[in-house]
Amino acid sequence: MRTWLAESRGRPADPLFPGPRGMALTRDAVAFFVSKYAAAASERCPSLTNKKISPHVLRHTCAMQLLQAGVDTSVIALWLGHESIETTQIYLHADLALKERALARTAPPDTVPGRYHAPDALLVFLEGL
């Protein structure tokens, strides 16, 4: 990516991947290129042949990878450009591994809950507010 940016020598406001006239690629153009190169990739990787690969699928996959890496949903919402985190919640779904990690962080059912004791430094800080 750095090489591409260095060679293009564009201004920060220029499109990252310009079309033939120097303007940003349209959604249809992006979809065309994704489809074209997915078809080419399927020749070397036959398991891709029956997969539906589109810009939306790539976007969703990116969001799920961020979620599985532990990135907060609000950060993913910003990454995707969503105005509302509720939109992001619809977009994401927790897979089984993610659910297992969440369960592993909970206390066992026979655990007696304890009372939280804040450190002295925290109490001093809070009293100073």
From TrEMBL:
Matches recorded under Gene3D superfamilies: Intergrase catalytic core
Positions of the Tyr recombinase domain: 1-104
Keyword field: DNA recombination, DNA-binding
Molecular function per GO: DNA binding
GO biological process entries: DNA integration; DNA recombination
DNA-binding listed as a keyword: yes
Protein name, as recorded: Integrase/recombinase
Organism per entry: mine drainage metagenome
Taxonomic lineage: unclassified sequences, metagenomes, ecological metagenomes
